Amino acid sequence: MSTAALLTDMYEYTMVDAALRDGTAHRQCVFEVFTRHLPSGRRYGVVAGLGRILEYIKNFKPSDEDLAFLRDNHIVSTDTINWLENYHFSGTIRAYREGEMFFANSPVLQVEGTFAECTLLETVILSVLNYDCAIASAASRITSAAGSRPCADMGGRRAHEEAAISASRSAVVGGFVSTANLAAAKRYGIPCIGTAAHAFTLVHDSERDAFESQVQALGTGTTLLTDTYNVEEAIRTAVEVAGSELGGIRIDSGDLASMAQKARHQLDALGAKNTKITVTNDLDEYAIAALATAPVDSYGVGTRLVTGSGHPTTSMVYKLVEREGADGHMHPVSKKSFGKSTDGWRKRGLRVYEYGLAQGELVLAGPADKINDWAASQSEYEEVKDLSIIAIDHGTIDESLMTREALFAARDYHNEALRELPVNALSLSDGEPAIPTEVVTLN
Amino acid sequence: MSTAALLTDMYEYTMVDAALRDGTAHRQCVFEVFTRHLPSGRRYGVVAGLGRILEYIKNFKPSDEDLAFLRDNHIVSTDTINWLENYHFSGTIRAYREGEMFFANSPVLQVEGTFAECTLLETVILSVLNYDCAIASAASRITSAAGSRPCADMGGRRAHEEAAISASRSAVVGGFVSTANLAAAKRYGIPCIGTAAHAFTLVHDSERDAFESQVQALGTGTTLLTDTYNVEEAIRTAVEVAGSELGGIRIDSGDLASMAQKARHQLDALGAKNTKITVTNDLDEYAIAALATAPVDSYGVGTRLVTGSGHPTTSMVYKLVEREGADGHMHPVSKKSFGKSTDGWRKRGLRVYEYGLAQGELVLAGPADKINDWAASQSEYEEVKDLSIIAIDHGTIDESLMTREALFAARDYHNEALRELPVNALSLSDGEPAIPTEVVTLN
């Protein structure tokens, strides 16, 4: 059986093995996921992947096959195998919502539990967040640049085949409306779209034959690919075949702005005033911004979406910030590594608003009771928002966060949160984060 | 049941649906995978992923659940569902070996069969090749820069969790010796390695406690992480705890060259002359080249490996180049799209050598019989190598290409093929491809 238990680095198991022997495995711990910096020049990042993480944690318990692998390869001792047979994450996870913005040092996800149960989740949590946030962050910039024109994910072929499915999901968080990827459509209920490939035209004896076949199969509402040979001829043939009710045409090469403009004039002259023009061809936020004045109706985005538009990972790390000591109390811990030091104590991310406009990210650090007291005392101030939700409460997963509805709600949440940021957040040029982050230690 | 049948873009199914109605679905076709250009400045690319593609093709037949999805969402007609129920790829796939170099226009993979059976494989073949080749290409540069020092994949956490497993595999093709990722170790039999995280030191009351625990669990041959607080103190403690037989130390921050040098002096002075030094921290081929003179024994490589060291995808495309016409004969086909035109006829990639040194890539294009005649007539010349092998022969998969042995054989093949390239192939600076490619049409 396939579980998530081996989506781990070996050292997680060997650390647990050693810690079970010496007793520290049972110490209460708080681990946090954050990034030390946004990708160079980016104004904000977008959280995605929480629903997927919860699926993995739900299915983390090692199978007999997993345990046999760990035993036969002498990765852990028999005592640890026995402990793993009863593995169940009984801790608590607090996380930024999917669709929420994050910045450097935002406590995107916090895992509280015993050292052993938290340690095993490091790799799978980081893998999901590092990829999914990279894609959602790129998607957000792309859909911002597209304005009211819908964006469709067509990137499956340019990413690892499973990453592609997650990319479709993260693209929705960042504002995409549809995907070409069937596995993503099935798994997440994302609306599925498609046109045709050049091969479909080429396998036929003529472009007209291909268009006739496609219209016969899919109706006049279909989108015909018009750049296999000559775009002008193709459009003429397309309207002859489908009539002026032709749904759309796709252009996949050349100078898209002037080709779209010419196509629009030609379509209008042929009476196909409602025929949509969709363009594809290595589009990203910059290319789409440059097409703003061209008569384009929708964008298909591939490579640049699924590779995070230049930033394919988010540099999220998973760090121990607080743990139980021999005295039974929680203590802050931090490493001093040069350039990679960490701050002790658990954190809480809040966003401060003025007239509904975000002014900054406030990261509180401190003992749990002090943070809770502060948060309670501030509840009367409407203009401070707690950015995190409890996704797992003492082992009980909030399964509503794993649904299709949660995915589309994340997109709505993201759209709203983006409108609350200063307008420079929407700038595509390199610059400072949209809002400053301040870390305040309460103790 | 999980099959590969939905690792497809929707248009592949709708094209098949239309082509089944009009009869072109049964036309014999040749599709080819190639890239129009290497990533900017790269001297060569490395093929990886063929074994994974064969696994997918073996498991491509849609399950009842897949068929229900296609039917319920009206993606294809009932006739097409009936056709899909009996899907079996009965065609032939010729491909560059895993570990082989490729250049712009190298016919990396060629799929021959009916239009319908070949069309459905487009996305899954491209997804695998685009990702796996990107990682193997980066891995090759990284291991070249590392020379005789072994490289371990530690990138799982910085990539999508399933991509991470494929990255470990592709890293082996490119010369890596081990991985931290347990799922990859289990699936592909890759040697697994690990040290400890900073959290392990932090959860203990002291660094000494942590080191004692790790040595107790894993023996003195283990590798201790020494940069949580102060490297010099940590090394002193490490040797006190483990003795001079300590297996290794890991440094994960700071100026790695001078820290390694200092650590080596300190270890030697403490009598731990055989204790290895492994370094990690956002390493790539450039950082590793800069460490050549530092006393480092091995490298752990993460982010930059799994993101293709700046080039996370390979821009491979899947194009129809030849198909049966109404006359029953094969005809070359090509699209004219501006900047993305293709050349008709099937291709065959050959490498030409002189004194055992590769001089160029010769890509023959033409009808099957002419290519076969040419290849046969050239067999007397030892200095021309046919770069492709038959991976699927009329539906029969060469399952030896899917084994663990094939993976490690690919690494050996790659090492040899790299030695046969002009030495400028090993240059890390941007430049021209290591050898020129010439396309010759035989007709």
UniProtKB/TrEMBL annotation, chains A, B:
TM helices/strands, residue ranges:
none
Q: Matching InterPro entries, A to Z?
A: Aldolase_TIM, N/Namide_PRibTrfase, NAPRTase_N, Nic_PRibTrfase-Fam, Nic_PRibTrfase_pncB, Nicotinate_pribotase-like_C
Keywords in UniProt for this one?
Glycosyltransferase, Ligase, Phosphoprotein, Pyridine nucleotide biosynthesis, Transferase
* One Pfam match: NAPRTase
Which family does the UniProt entry place this protein in? Belongs to the NAPRTase family.
Give the Enzyme Commission number.
6.3.4.21
Keyword Lipid biosynthesis attributed: no
**Which domain of life does the UniProt lineage start with?**
Bacteria
Per the database record, which ranges form the Nicotinate/nicotinamide phosphoribosyltransferase domain? 151-343
Q: How is it modified after translation?
A: Transiently phosphorylated on a His residue during the reaction cycle. Phosphorylation strongly increases the affinity for substrates and increases the rate of nicotinate D-ribonucleotide production. Dephosphorylation regenerates the low-affinity form of the enzyme, leading to product release.
Q: In which pathway does it act?
A: Cofactor biosynthesis; NAD(+) biosynthesis; nicotinate D-ribonucleotide from nicotinate: step 1/1
Report the record's Gene Ontology biological process terms.
NAD+ biosynthetic process via the salvage pathway
Q: Which CDD domains does the entry link to?
A: NAPRTase_A
Please give the catalytic activity noted in the UniProt record: 5-phospho-alpha-D-ribose 1-diphosphate + nicotinate + ATP + H2O = nicotinate beta-D-ribonucleotide + ADP + phosphate + diphosphate
- Quote the cellular component terms of the Gene Ontology held in the record: cytosol
Q: Which GO terms describe its molecular function?
A: glycosyltransferase activity; nicotinate phosphoribosyltransferase activity
What is this protein's record name?
Answer: Nicotinate phosphoribosyltransferase
| Biological role stated in the UniProt entry | Catalyzes the first step in the biosynthesis of NAD from nicotinic acid, the ATP-dependent synthesis of beta-nicotinate D-ribonucleotide from nicotinate and 5-phospho-D-ribose 1-phosphate.
Where do the Nicotinate phosphoribosyltransferase N-terminal domain residues begin and end? 6-130
